[in-house]
Amino acid sequence: MSVDKDTRISGGQFIAILFASRLAVSLTALPTLHQTSHATDFMLSTALQIPLLLLLYLPIWWFGRRTHGASTVDYAGILFGRGGRVVAGLYALVSLYVQVVALMRFDHLVGSALSPDMSRVALCGAVVAAAFLAALHGLQAIGRAAVLIVAGVVAGIVFVFLALLPQMDPLCFAPPLYDGFSPVIAGALEELPRTLEVVSIGLLLPYVKGNMTRHYITWTVLVAAGVILIQATSAGVLGDYGELVLFPYYTAVTTAQIGVLQRVDILAASLWLAALFVKMAFFAMQFLSCLQRIGGQRFKLLYAVGGGLLVLISGLLLGNSPLLEERAVIWGISVALTGLMAVILPLGLIAADAMRNKRLKEAREG
């Protein structure tokens, strides 16, 4: 994928893609499932993620400054030649992992809440096919779609919050830091690896117009605000019961009465499906882009078919077990991938670049 005006996206499109991708997780699974602290502390945990995400951004920021905005994959090719394809392969594997986890969430929500009688294979196959078809149209197409989808998702979340506000019980919101600061830190650290979008920032550096740092900061703040609104809606309606259900936000929206609306579950499901589509299409596009760097563009359609089948088969075979053991399985893998792709990789490329420059300097002086 060459860097030109046909492949670059605006800052708003970049923010919309990552915002929708992150909300796709929060709309179906909240951290109260795995923590003992109350909802108020989880809102503080979400706010605490802003400085943590900014810290994670520092290695990429340093790398971008040093390389004048080159992508990590491109610069790995400059430093290591064909060996740089290993970095592209890592990004492709991470992209597949994110899509498989997202598909498992979709399968679990449909099977346990939306429509247990519908065919899992058909529904999951439709979602994967739609994502890879969108990915074939490129980053700009996904960016334009993401802007429209995010506008609808945000409008829906705000509408639901305001509509349910009269039914929320203030007693559900305990005083902040009631159990000290430890639960807040624990909640922030548990939720942070769910923001796997950070692993893609280094790859996107040359493909986003404007100031990447400003876009990134805006995204982290908006994500925190959106997740807090979702948490407040779930906690205010369900109270402690929200800790016992698998999909607190969906449950809160579907059990509450919103005026004359009778099928609010359709609204909640539509919000999540729209965000899920953006997430899977974005990471499918990233997967295809990386494979094209490795094997060329001639087999783009083959990559899409193969990647789609791999995501579909993996998601269906793994089922719900990894989600039910999320802290032990998915959380650990996500932590490792976040550290590798957002911290170790850019710092490693910086170190390799410094060593290369040192050797070149010594050669010139010698």
Give the topology:
Blueprint: H1 11-26, H2 39-67, H3 72-80, H4 85-114, H5 120-136, H6 139-164, H7 182-191, H8 201-204, H9 212-238, H10 248-255, H11 264-295, H12 300-318, H13 321-324, H14 330-365
Query: How would you state the average pLDDT, rounded?
Result: 86
Distance between the termini: 39 Å
The number of helices is 14
* Number of separate strands: 0
Any descriptors?
73% helix; 0% strand; 366 residues; single chain; mainly alpha
Task: Explain what you see.
Helix content is 73%, strand content 0%. The radius of gyration is 21 Å and the shape is globular. It is built from 14 helices and no strands. Helix 1 runs parallel beside helix 9 and helix 4 runs antiparallel to helix 5. The protein has helices at 11-26, 39-67, 72-80, 85-114, 120-136, 139-164, 182-191, 201-204, 212-238, 248-255, 264-295, 300-318, 321-324, 330-365. It is mainly α.
Task: Write a short abstract of this structure.
The chain is mainly alpha-helical and 366 residues long.
